[in-house]
Structure formats: structure tokens, C-alpha cells
Amino acid sequence: MAHNPEGNQKQVHYVGDSRVRADRPKRYAPDYSEFPGKTEAFIPDFLLKEWMVAVVFLVGFMTLVFSEMPPLGEKADPTNTSFLPVPDWYFLFVYQLLKYKWASGPYVLIGIVVLPGIAAAALLLAPWLDSGKERRPHKRPATIGIMLTTLVMIVALTWQAEAEHQEQLISSPVRKPKSTEIVDPNSKAYQLYKESACIKCHGEKLEGLNGPHLLGIGTKQGMSKEEMIRIMDEGRGAMPAGMFQGSDADKELLAEWLMKQKQK
Amino acid sequence: MLRAIYDWVDERLDITPIWRDVADHEVPEHVNPAHHFSAFIYCFGGLTFFVVVIQILSGMFLALYYVPDIVNAHASVNYLQNELAMGAIVRGMHHWGASVAIVMLFLHTLRVFFTGSYKHPREFNWVIGILIFAVMVGLGFTGYLLPWDNKAYFATKVGVEIAAAVPWIGPYIAAFLQGGDIVGAVTLERFFALHVFFLPALLFILLAVHFILIRRQGISGPL
């Protein structure tokens, strides 16, 4: 080092002013001697164990990634008036809160300022609101009780929001498309459609008779091949269960074909 | 050879104490899942950081192809998901990772809360943690718009409307988020910039403070 004219190899530390030698004692981490037990160094001993947990986690995570394709809907169309908006799942409880009469309309301030404000302030100030020395949960029932109650309410609101959204999706009609041309009319699936009971209610050209039309069904929000098969199996509304009598392979073919009906 | 290079650098920059401090500090038994299986709840914080790293890496690769304008955004996401080799995996990691990050962060927060670990002297680090939570939720909200599909568009519209209903400052928040009177071209640009520059920068600063404070104060003792 430049500040080491004697040339001895011993490391010399300086503070900001390079003429003043640092004489700081090394800061040791707390050694937890008050908690006798098997402490170990962070790297590599402990990090290895934490990595084991991370590997289990990673396997689960990648299983999810490989089995579920991330969804991508139709390109955003601001003129689409029938689209039911829904926020990402972790906002659902706030979204639901704002649907209640006492937290919306003239009372909207309760929903967007008062309740979220209290929650945020309580969370930020938790260490000072719960300032006792006691750390064990059963010794601070008020704090834990408030948190548990809040958690139950968040879960209930999220559940309710999701249930209401699904209900709205089911009852929302398919937009009547301008085009009535059937996609892929030469498919075997169209034959299956015509030969089965579907045709009696949904019509020969998917135009809908007693039942709703199926033109543009592939663009319906929340509709998927799996959902289609479920409706065929379990029925929906006035439609009885088990209307499609063919084999599972045929049913799948028909569902795939119906999802292609994206007339606009 | 490596040793010589290390010594050469170390003599000039004195790097040994920095990493030795990180490597050698003792980790107590009660947070070690190898000694007590139930101690895996103390891993939630580390796992959250792990997901954040996954988000950063997958996001960097998505940014190679994503185009933040309303004409091309949807097409570019569609391309990288359906045409590009491994694109669906990388987007899948980023998409699902966003939800998993929130879940892990939530679990970590609950662990700290129920074990009372935010008490003296660690009050300040709890506040930092809540701010990290807010930034992560902000990342989720801004990232949700980027694929520019109907779901993204209308969710953002509702979100901005809710923000606009806040008295006094509401209209200003909405104008700041939208960059105009409607959710449109500028909004997407804005959310992109917030999502990849502003909020990550804030997140890195908060994470650094979070970790430095943990090193200074140590992990809270057993219950």
C-alpha cells in the first residue's frame, strides 16, 4: 500500500484521513451465547441448509411453471363494453370491500381512505402499538387476535370477490357477433355437434334456439376447453348435465372446435 | 495463481473483512431447519429473496423481446410466449413468480409478526419490511398492465379509478399514473418505466437496508 513506506507486509488500516491509523476493534456478530445450542457459520454451513429448503421450493415452483401456461387474453380493446374487469388476486379483497354499500357511493371514503389507512398505519406502527417485552404469541392475545381477525376478513373478502366474479362470468351473455360464418365447418367436430342433442337448443348454425347462441363462444371471458367440457358434463342454468353422449375423445374434439368459434 | 490474484487485489482494496463478516457470522440453532424441522418458517425471508432474484433474472430476459408500446406490446408478448424457444417458461416464471413472491412475502411478514420479532431493537427493520411489501405490490400492479390484453387494461382502469376517488390528491395520483386523461399509450410507457426502473431501484435500496440491519442486529432469539 502507498501509505506503507517501511515496506513491511502487515496490513495497515486508515480512517478517511489517510494519516490517521484506524484503531477500531473488529465488530463481532452476536454469538448467541445466551442461547446455547448448535450455532454455525453462515457460509457455507447454514446457507447450504437454506439452499436445501430452496431446492424443495424450486421444484414445486418449476412444476407450477411447466404445468400451467401463463394466460394471455385478447389484445386490449378499450371499446369492449362487455368485459368484466377483475384485478389481480391480491387486490381482490379491497375490490370486494368497495362493492359494499357502507364503503361505496357516498361512503366511498370509508372504503378507500379510512379502512386502508387504519390498516396501513397499524401495520407500519405495529412495533410501537405492541411495545411490550413479551414476544410469545399466547402472551399478547390482543395483537394476535386483531391480526387473526384481519386475516379471516381478508380471506373471506377474497373468496367472496372470486365467487361473485365467477357468477358474473357465467351469467354474462356472449356478445352477438356480426359474422355468422362457422369456423372450420368441415371438421369432424361439426358432424358430432349436428348428430348430438346440442343442435336442438343451440341451433344448426350455432345461432341459438331455446338455448344461447354459440357464435363467438371462443372469445367469451373465462371460457376455456376445460370449462366447455365441464359444462357438457355438468350442465349450466337450464342446460341439463350429460348432454353430450359421445366418447371422451370426441367430447374433447368438440370442445376444441367450439373454442375456435371466435367470430367477432 | 488465483490465490496470488486475490492477494494482489486484497492488499490494495482490503476486501477480506467484508466477505468474512458475511461468511463467518454465527447463525443460531433455533432458525436452522437441519436442527428443528419447524424452523423452516425462518426460511421464508430467504425464499422471498430467492423469488425476487428469479423475478429479476426472468424479467431481464423478457425485456430482450418485450416492446412497451400499445401497438406491439401484446404481439411481442404473444411472440415470446408462443414462438420463442423457452419463452413460455421464462414468461411463466415471471408470471407465476409474481404471485409466489407476494405469497412468500406475506408468509415472511406473518412469521415476523407472530414471533414478535419486530420488537425492540428491530422496530425500524419492520418498517423497512412493510415498505418493501408496498413496493412489491406496486411492482405487481404496474407489471399487470404490460401484456396489454383486456384483463390487464380493464384491471388497470379500475385501479386508477379507485385511486382517483381519494379526496384532494386522488386526481393527481390518477394523472400521474395515466399520464393523461385515459389509460392509453402513455400509461403503458409509464407503467413500463415504473416497473423496470423506478420500483426496482427503490426495491434494491430497501433490500440493502433490510439486510444490513439484519446483520447489525442479528436474528431475534428463540421464543
Give descriptors for this structure.
heterodimer, A: 264 residues, mainly alpha, 9 helices, elongated, B: 223 residues, 71% helix
Note down, in words, how this protein is organized.
- The complex is a heterodimer of chains A (264) and B (223).
- Chain A is an all-alpha fold and 264 residues long.
- Chain A is 45% helix and 1% strand.
- In chain A, α6 (188-195) packs across α9 and α8 packs across α9 (248-259).
- Chain A starts with 39 loop residues before the first strand and ends in a 5-residue tail after the last helix.
- In chain B, α7 (150-164) runs antiparallel to α8 (170-178).
- The N and C termini of chain B lie far apart (48 Å).
- At the A-B interface, β1, α1, α3 and α4 of A face α2, β1, α3, α4 and α5 of B.
Compile the SSE list and pairings.
The complex is a heterodimer of chains A (264) and B (223).
Chain A: E1 40-41, H1 42-67, H2 92-97, H3 108-124, H4 126-129, H5 141-171, H6 188-195, H7 198-202, H8 225-234, H9 248-259
Helix pairs in contact in A: 6-9, 8-9
Chain B: H1 2-13, H2 16-24, E1 26-27, H3 44-62, H4 73-82, H5 87-114, H6 123-145, H7 150-164, H8 170-178, H9 185-217
Helix pairs in contact in B: 3-5, 4-5, 5-6, 6-7, 6-9, 7-8
Q: How would you characterize the largest beta sheet of chain A?
A: none
Question: Which sequence of SSEs, written as H and E, runs from N to C of chain A?
Answer: EHHHHHHHHH
**Helix coverage percent of chain B:** over 70%
Average pLDDT number of chain B = 95
Q: Beta fraction of the residues of chain A?
A: under 5%
Helical element count of chain B? 9
SS element count, helices of chain A? 9
Assign a percent range to the helix content of chain A. 40-55%
Radius of gyration of chain B: 21 Å
Pair with the biggest interface = A-B, 78 and 86 residues
Low-confidence spans of chain A? none
